[in-house]
């Protein structure tokens, strides 16, 4: 197990460390994480991190450094306005010229750990708390990169981990969105979110990448899914896909915990003050008119994960999942 003396240098406590190993500890770390440790070892002491000195003298850190005697250190973004190296986010420059940020890769590795790593006893830490902290560490403007980094399987895994959030009373009351947590505040602006699904039936296959808008009207919170790519203009006119938002504690079909429900209904909402440029509400096309509900969990600041269910109007109809899990990341650019 990683040395508990240096764990707070990475923003979590001993009980938050999510992995242990079946072999030698130093060989269990992925290269990016070890590189990050070495870089921290070379930085000056940080006034807010008293354990910085423990890392410098930690035997685990020294052995990790020996493992990478032929590996270059990650780059850090340079800026004349940075007053300390601690203000920079470490990254790797990949062979194809693209940048791989270590804070983003930490999330990928946590959701999809290497086979030689095994999870700690779940009772010793809360996975949702660790994931929330890791998302919080990523700057707002970079969080949308998670949409391309997390494949459908990892999005499903994120849904599972978000379910452990309810075991932590303090974490359970946190919200990924100011608008969703303060629905009675009329001054909150329109929010846009970028979303990714794992596809589904032919009728919704075009919704793999889409946008979501959240807004407040008539003392209620509403939303709208907006199709992406070439169909965005068509969907804006003919498939408005408005829904109402309400707090709910469990997924009806599975009785699993959740935070919110996006209820599509028939689409004929009595909305007279919807956002400028939005189309008038219209009847949903099939299958959205067949009692479709998206159940949502808060995953981290500005990040949600959901499940879409087609529950059906007929009493004898068995609810079915409309598509795989949906990852939703708040768009901080301020527009569509």
Descriptive overview:
The model is unreliable at 1-87 (pLDDT under 50). The termini are far apart. Helix 1 (31-42) crosses helix 3 and helix 4 runs antiparallel to helix 5 (127-137). The chain is α+β, with helices and mostly antiparallel strands. It folds into 2 domains: 7-125, no CATH class; 172-330, no CATH class. The strands form 3 sheets. Strands 6-7-8-9-10-11-12-14 form an 8-stranded antiparallel barrel. It has a 3-stranded antiparallel β-sheet with strand order 2-3-4. The longest helix has 12 residues, at 31-42. The chain has helices at residues 31-42, 52-57, 59-67, 102-111, 127-137, 146-149, 152-162, 169-172, 178-181, 232-238, and strands at residues 19-21, 75-76, 90-93, 99-101, 117-119, 191-196, 209-217, 220-227, 242-247, 260-263, 292-300, 303-310, 320-321, 326-330.
């Amino acid at each position: 197990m990683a040395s508990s003396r240096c764990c707070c240098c990475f923003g979590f406590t001993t009980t938050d460390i999510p992995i242990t190993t079946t072999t030698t500890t130093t060989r269990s770390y992925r290269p990016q994480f070890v590189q990050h440790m070495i870089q921290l070892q070379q930085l000056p002491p940080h006034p807010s991190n008293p354990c910085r000195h423990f890392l410098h003298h930690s035997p685990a850190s020294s052995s990790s450094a020996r493992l990478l005697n032929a590996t270059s250190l990650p780059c850090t973004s340079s800026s004349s306005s940075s007053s300390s190296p601690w203000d920079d986010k470490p990254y790797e420059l990949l062979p194809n010229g693209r940048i791989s940020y270590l804070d983003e890769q930490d999330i990928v590795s946590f959701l999809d750990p290497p086979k030689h790593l095994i999870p700690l006893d779940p009772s010793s830490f809360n996975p949702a708390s660790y994931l929330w902290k890791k998302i919080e560490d990523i700057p707002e403007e970079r969080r949308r990169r998670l949409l391309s980094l997390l494949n459908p399987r990892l999005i499903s895994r994120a849904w599972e981990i978000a379910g452990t959030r309810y075991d932590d009373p303090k974490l359970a009351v946190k919200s990924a969105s100011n608008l969703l947590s303060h629905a009675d505040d009329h001054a909150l602006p329109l929010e846009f979110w970028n979303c990714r699904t794992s596809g589904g039936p032919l009728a919704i296959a075009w919704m793999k990448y889409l946008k979501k808008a959240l807004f407040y009207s008539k003392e209620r919170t509403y939303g709208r899914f907006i199709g992406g790519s070439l169909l965005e203009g068509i969907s804006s006119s003919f498939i408005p896909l408005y829904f109402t938002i309400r707090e709910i504690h469990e997924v009806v079909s599975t009785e699993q915990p959740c935070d919110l429900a996006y209820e599509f209904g028939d689409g004929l909402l009595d909305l007279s003050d919807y956002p400028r440029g939005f189309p008038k509400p219209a009847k949903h096309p099939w299958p959205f008119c067949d009692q479709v509900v998206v159940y949502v969990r808060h995953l981290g600041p500005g990040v949600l994960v959901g499940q879409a269910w087609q529950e059906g109007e007929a009493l004898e109809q068995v609810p079915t999942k409309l598509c795989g899990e949906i990852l939703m990341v708040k768009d901080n650019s301020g527009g569509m």
